[in-house]
Amino acid sequence: MSFTESFASTAQSVMAFGVDSAAVAALPDNALLAAHSLLTEHRRHSDVYAAFIAGEIERRSSREAGYSGLAQRSGFGSTEALLQTLSPVTKVEAKRLVSAGILMASTPATLWESALASTLAAGSLSIAAVDAIRRGLGPVADAAPAADLLAECERLITRAPSVSVDELTREARSARDRLDEAGISRREKQRRDNRYLKRWVRDDGMYQGSFLLDPEGGQHVFTALDAIIAPRRGVRFVDATAAARADAIVADPRTNDQLLADAFVEMVRLAVDADPSTLFGTRRPAVRVVVTEQALSTPDGHGFIEGDSQPVSRSTVDRFICDTGFIGIKFDRKHQVMDLGRTQRLFSDNQRLVISVRDGGCIFLDCTRPPSASEVHHINEWVRDGGLTNVADGVLLCRHHHMLLHNNHWRIIRLDDGYWLKPPRSQDPEQKLRRLVSKSALFAEMRT
């Protein structure tokens, strides 16, 4: 079946479901999900046509054409601006369409870009997925061997249908860092060089500003501010004093934005008024670098700031170790550590640290909540199963998925090859297990 025939067939199948809310409401669950899948396929095919058209408009609006170009004659300075008028797309979406159209219409200079162009033209992947792979791998096109780039590109193309675009972007960047580890320090410096904080006074007397921070600085600021509004995000506090403070924050009439604004001002006041002889560090935001022992043994090794997928250079790792020391955690090949035993109901700070480094955030399917917004879940319940309070039987879950697990009777089980999600029979009569993987960028890199 040709691309055009496939497109027409998909469109016809989609329309068969009807377009009014009553028709959709009458669909059984399996038909509803099937309708969504068909619409997704239809959108993917129509986007390919849109990209071909956008690429041709760009060709006819080239710089060489000057004011006689198609976009210019239509009164627009660029193809993207014209596309935004022709269809309800954002500037970013318009740029993606143009970029995809050019990729398919031209003869790619590299093997990996040629593979992407063929996949896109066949309608096998969405434009967003192709764009994620292209942008993720692109910066190392001149530094990595062509065969290695093609192999990584083909692997990502295979992975794309089973992961979200955000996850695909992270995997593409991880692939880039594996192929060009020497460039990690350069990219880290570029991110730091891009940082800024701008501020001005508005006509109405209000003070306004904006900032852009590199991952290390951003984690310090965001971790500190996240702690302020954590009670409103459902994070539970067991300590009586902390629980009372949390209740006060929840009951506070200020909005989250107002709380953050006041907290930011208060942090600046405390820093300015502090005794210069005071050594800061005992209550600094918990920003950690995780790194393998192997990386520490090589000059070009790298680590990750916990909660961020961008790698940091060996020099940054060394600076963190010099400043705060380090805690060694030994993992086996199954990413497990030694048990600490059934000595207490609640996980200790050290246990939470280990689990946080291992899981990298909520490990539920496709969840992106960081460790700071997650809780430790006993996969074998303390009372019902006689579960142990040890690292191997604890996993990170955000508040939402922790409640979903208990309320909807999902289970997480640990097998020799890792953790698996077991749905209830009401959701899946066969209770097919679904693999759960660490969200840690460090372990994601080790898996590939």
Summarize the structure.
The chain contains 19 helices and 10 strands.
Explain the overall architecture.
With 448 residues, the protein is mainly α. The chain folds into 4 domains: 184 residues, no CATH class; 78 residues, no CATH class; 36 residues, no CATH class; 99 residues, no CATH class. 50% of the residues lie in helices and 10% in strands. The protein has a 3-stranded antiparallel beta sheet with strand order 3-4-5. α7 runs parallel beside α9, α8 packs antiparallel against α9 and α8 runs parallel beside α10. The longest helix is centred in the first third of the chain and has 32 residues. It is globular and about 70 Å long. About 2% of the residues have low confidence.
Strand order of the largest sheet: 3-4-5
Mean pLDDT: 80
Main sheet attributes: strand count, strand direction, barrel closure: 3 strands, antiparallel
In DSSP terms (H or I, runs of 4 or more residues), the helix count works out at 19
Number of strands: 10
Order of helices and strands: HHHHHHHHHHHEEHHHEHEEHHEEHEEEH
> If you compute it from the alpha carbons, what radius of gyration comes out, rounded to the nearest whole angstrom?
26 Å
**Helical amount among residues, as a percent range?**
40-55%
Given as residue ranges, the uncertain stretches (5+ residues, pLDDT < 50) are: 279-283, 339-343
The count of domains is: 4
How much of the sequence is in beta strands? 5-15%
Overall 3D shape: globular
Distance between the termini: 35 Å
Structural class: mainly alpha
